[in-house]
Design a protein that fits this description.
Helices cover about 10% and strands about 50% of the residues. The strands form two sheets. A twelve-stranded antiparallel barrel has the order 3-4-5-6-7-8-9-10-11-12-13-14. A two-stranded antiparallel ribbon has the order 1-2. The protein is globular. The protein has three helices and 14 strands. The protein is mainly beta and about 290 residues long.
């Protein structure tokens, strides 16, 4: 698994990087930045272009920077990824290595839709790789849906707060996962995000509820308009066993053509209750 991650990262790092949006869209964004009224037609169409553009360019109906339209941090979500009329797909590979036992590899297929009025809808299919060498099989874990609501257009409120709610049907249980998403830019090339999280199953017995309070924090530095490097941290408090998990690790995100990108994050556990590592690979495609 680790070798495959390394190969994919090296492939991405040496790929040719091009822009993600049409020159006309970027030009309209620049014009909108000089105007009091935002250009509501910006990013209605997403297409490949040979012209590079700055990730700090404000785009779309919500006048958000272009870097928010690709998932910079696997552990931490920021604002909305799909302006009105746009959609995207992501394939997640989530490898969780325990301190003892077999690594669990989870997969997630995510479809995101921009609904307008600062709303985003995401639909998920969850699967997992199980078995032993020679008998591996991918089985269904369940389904979930998520809605995000940004409280204001970008830059109007500190931290650009966004409300997140996910409803799950996983492993025979129905569950919820509300979050508060925060994020912004630091200086010319720095970006950050923080998430506050609660997660639980809806069940009568406390042991089946698997309640969890968590937070994540990520920082990225945009080396250029295609390559971002940084680091993430994750804290999780688990009930009813009162265990604490704490993780730290590096991240990398690279746009290797006009519509696609890859994000990689490797978090190492630092407490006895933590997993040995949590490694995430995301491939994203904007339609």
């Amino acid at each position: 698994m680790n070798k495959r991650l390394v190969i994919l990262v090296l492939f991405a790092a040496f790929g040719s990087a091009k822009a993600q949006y049409a020159p006309s869209a970027v030009a309209r964004g620049a014009e909108a930045n000089r105007s009091e009224e935002p250009d509501t037609n910006l990013l209605k169409e997403v297409q490949v272009s040979a012209q590079a553009y700055p990730q700090t360019q404000l785009v779309g109906e919500y006048q958000q920077p272009a870097w928010t339209l690709v998932r910079k941090f696997p552990a931490t979500r920021v604002y909305l990824m799909t302006p009105p009329g746009t959609n995207m797909y992501e394939k997640w590979v989530d490898a969780r290595e325990p301190r003892k036992g077999t690594t669990e590899i989870r997969f997630r297929d995510e479809f995101a839709f921009g609904l307008g009025r600062r709303l985003e809808l995401d639909l998920y299919l969850h699967t997992v790789l199980k078995g032993k060498p020679g008998t591996y099989a991918i089985t269904l874990r369940g389904f979930s849906w998520e809605v995000r609501y940004a409280l204001a257009d970008w830059g109007k409120i500190w931290g650009n707060p966004t409300l997140y709610f996910e409803h799950k049907f996983l492993n025979g249980y129905m569950g919820i996962e509300p979050k508060i998403l925060l994020g912004d830019q630091i200086g010319a090339r720095g970006i950050w995000g923080v998430n506050l999280i609660y997660e639980a199953n809806i069940a009568r017995k406390r042991i089946d509820q698997e309640r969890e309070w968590a937070s994540t924090a990520s920082y990225g530095y945009m080396i250029n308009d295609d390559l971002t490097v940084g680091a993430s941290s994750m804290y999780r408090y688990n009930d009813p066993d009162y265990s604490d998990e704490l993780y730290f690790g590096p991240l990398l995100q690279y746009r290797f053509n006009g519509k696609a990108y890859v994000s990689v994050e490797s978090l190492l556990g630092t407490t006895d209750a933590s997993k040995k590592s949590r490694n995430t690979l995301i491939f994203g495609w904007r339609f």
